Amino acid sequence: MTEVTAAPSVRDLIAASPRPPAPRVPLADRAGTVAPVAAPRHSRARAPQWLLPAGDLLAATAVVVCLQLLLTGIELAGLALTLAWPALLAGAGRYTYRAVPEPLSRRAGRVFRAGAVLGLCCWVAFPLAGSVAAPEVLAPTVLAMTGSSLGLCVLLPRQVRTRLVLAGSLDHVQQATTELTSAGRYDIVAACTPQPSSGLGSVPVHVGVSDAVTVANMHAADAVLMLPSDEMPAAVLRRLQWQAASTGVHVYVGTGLLDVTTTRMSVVQGAGMDLLHVRPAPTSGPRRFLKSAVERSVSLVAVVALLPLLMVLALVIRRDSPGPAIFRQTRVGCDGKPFTMYKFRTMVACAEDVRESLERDNEVDAVLFKLRSDPRVTAVGAWLRRYSVDELPQLWNVVRGDMALVGPRPALPAEVENYDFDPRRRLAVRPGLTGLWQVSGRSDLSWAESVRLDVRYVDNWSLALDLDILRRTVGAVLGQRGAY
């Protein structure tokens, strides 16, 4: 039998074409002389260092002026709090420059700590202040200052883009380049690898991991990211830190971990070594019980409140096309237990029978099946899918305990049969009505992207993450991205 091979695509031809070698920039000699800098260090795209403290001072002044119109006895106390507030924020590390910006939660935590210290100082100093200020004056002032600085965390970013030099083995450098460039706020200006390579496209590649700081100065980089490599023992890292401290370049060391939030990590010392402790993912315990109780209660109230709307939608679906209004399908839940999931029917009644004839037109990959223009979708069903209204009956699955409001995407049994090791991690918790997959693109995601988002959620779950996903779900539904 003659084997038939498909014609190569344009993408394959481009990938197979020879690439020109990456530019090699000569380094300075090993004695420590730094080659000429390609761009002045002040040209980096960062916000002025005085912008954030000036914003905090102006916001605190505005708070005191506004409260002075409403309260009495705030003049002296307001002046003292206005001057003390930026100093406390500086002590909390709010104004410290960081080449790799902190997440919003970490920046907000610094503001909260400064607010707690200011409130404690006011409580201790109140008996000494006498009639200068009363609690009804100090309390709203402290709360308003804290709120104003939290608002500035969002309005005034510390840095627009970060120029990075990557140093490590070629495989780790290539992976880090993909991850960092996809984030949209990092520019990879150079790389240092043990051997020469042309696999980074237009990024200059320098041979020698120990020259990373010198290369960073050549390219006016903000920071050096050190990645795992056989040529990077502890002594080399220590010397690079000394060299970086004298040139103003920040040094970051990659852990090699994937999708682990900082809340699960802590640095400890043992036997003269610095160790990174990674706490296990919280898949059970009091917080999980609280999540389940709250979600089931909220879902029950939502089902009762939305019952008239659900009945109207059911009648519209029945009149639009023959068949039941509710579509029932077996899905796999927590620990691999099957359950019946409920949705409003958005396709013709015989949709499952004709799916096999459409498999060749699948637009996602071999695991998921999605069509942007699925001929089985009804007119009413297209509208229901566009605004995710078809998923409202799943609130009853949440009430029953089969699903959660937030969790991984509910999987089909046929998908689970093809799972390897990593995707099975999604089954450690209950699937969700929404999740990271919902707010990150829904049907536009590939199978690998969907799995990674779900595993990231399982491993880094927290109540704050659930609240953030619920907030982002509103924008994802209204934006209609990936809804088909």
UniProtKB/TrEMBL annotation:
Keywords: Membrane, Transferase, Transmembrane, Transmembrane helix. The keyword Ubl conjugation does not apply. Residues 291-478 form the Bacterial sugar transferase domain. Coiled coil: none annotated. One of its GO terms (cellular component) is membrane. The keyword Transmembrane applies. It is a multi-pass membrane protein. GO terms for molecular function: phosphotransferase activity, for other substituted phosphate groups. InterPro entries: Bact_transf, EPS_sugar_tfrase. Its main location: membrane. It is found in: Membrane. The chain crosses the membrane at residues 50-70, 76-97, 109-126, 138-156, 297-317. Belongs to the bacterial sugar transferase family. PANTHER family: COLANIC BIOSYNTHESIS UDP-GLUCOSE LIPID CARRIER TRANSFERASE, SLL5057 PROTEIN. This is Sugar transferase. It comes from Nocardioides seonyuensis. The lineage of its organism: Bacteria, Bacillati, Actinomycetota, Actinomycetes, Propionibacteriales.
